[in-house]
Specification:
alpha/beta; 10 helices; six-stranded mixed sheet; 11 strands; about 300 residues
């Protein structure tokens, strides 16, 4: 897929069942409704049923199209939603007005949660007019300063998203402030180690990793040529792996607010994708995130 809009036109064979925890939110319901109209999902809304119905009435939406479960308590709502996925009654899950920590606590419950041996990590997919394809940015939302083994899992999580979007070869740039290894700069050392792991065949076969790479080298073949950098991925990356949450957050916000980038995001590493949207996200971003979650879940 070249654009996020492609997500809205994909044929999934069947609609994915989305459960929304604490769904009594205007913009979330609007995005969920549009995703239903596009035949991407069937929606299960958990939360204060009076508030949910009031929003549906206000927006003149058909209440009969929604499965509404009344549960005002946030902890209980999260438990119901996660158990529905665990029991096969829903295909993926979305955060509404619940705190992220409460939802993730339910997701990670050892008895009935959605734990795997992987690491939970956030993957943002960005569409920017100045770049030739979609950019998968990870992890600017969950892991503060991942270690080498965690970075490997973060790459594999992001690759699953890229794979679901049709990518056959997935090029990863392990970012740092410079392209030369400096023992005093942990990001450069671990980026070089990830590259070595790739060369030793320790990643999935369709993943290509290079690093350390500064951001200009990752995004620009011209910059790589000027600096005489011989790289398999420079100027043609799919995944930007950041060394810490500050860099990821900064790049993501820069794309959104200075480059007018469009975006979608999911949390990977659980048994199903988790759609975590920010209140600051616009309606379009929420819709794309739901569609992305459906494609990954499928």
């Amino acid at each position: 897929m070249k654009t996020l809009k492609d997500l809205l036109n994909i044929n999934l064979d069947k609609k994915m069942r989305l459960v929304v925890v604490a769904a009594n939110d205007n913009e979330v319901i609007e995005a969920v409704n549009e995703a239903q109209e596009l035949n991407i999902i069937d929606a299960i809304l958990i939360g204060d049923s009076k508030e949910i119905i009031s929003i549906l009435d206000e927006k003149k939406l058909n209440i009969e199209l929604f499965n509404i479960i009344d549960e005002k308590d946030m902890v209980s709502a999260a438990e119901i939603g996660v158990k529905m996925v665990s029991d096969g009654e829903a295909d993926f899950i979305m955060k509404g007005l619940i705190d992220t920590s409460l939802l993730l606590k339910a997701v990670l419950n050892k008895e009935w949660g959605l734990r795997t041996d992987s690491l939970l990590s956030h993957v943002m997919v960005y569409e920017v007019a100045s770049y030739s394809k979609l950019i998968y940015l990870t992890d600017g939302g969950m892991n503060l300063e991942p270690n080498l083994e965690e970075k490997k899992k973060i790459i594999e999580n992001a690759a699953k998203v890229a794979r679901s979007m049709g990518n056959e070869k997935i090029k990863v740039a392990a970012l740092a402030a410079k392209e030369k290894v400096n023992p005093k700069m942990k990001a450069t050392v671990e980026a070089d180690q990830l590259k070595t792991q790739y060369k030793n065949g320790e990643f999935s076969k369709d993943i290509i990793v290079d690093g350390p790479l500064a951001l200009d080298l990752a995004l620009s073949k011209e910059a790589a040529e000027i600096k005489k950098i011989d790289s398999e991925v420079a100027g043609d990356i799919d995944i930007l792996l950041v060394p810490n949450i500050e860099m990821g957050n900064g790049i993501g916000k820069t794309i959104t607010y200075l480059a007018n980038g469009k975006s979608a995001g999911v949390v990977m590493g659980a048994k199903v994708p988790i759609v975590l949207v920010s209140r600051a996200d616009d309606h379009e971003s929420k819709l794309y995130s739901i569609a992305l979650g459906a494609v990954v879940a499928r």
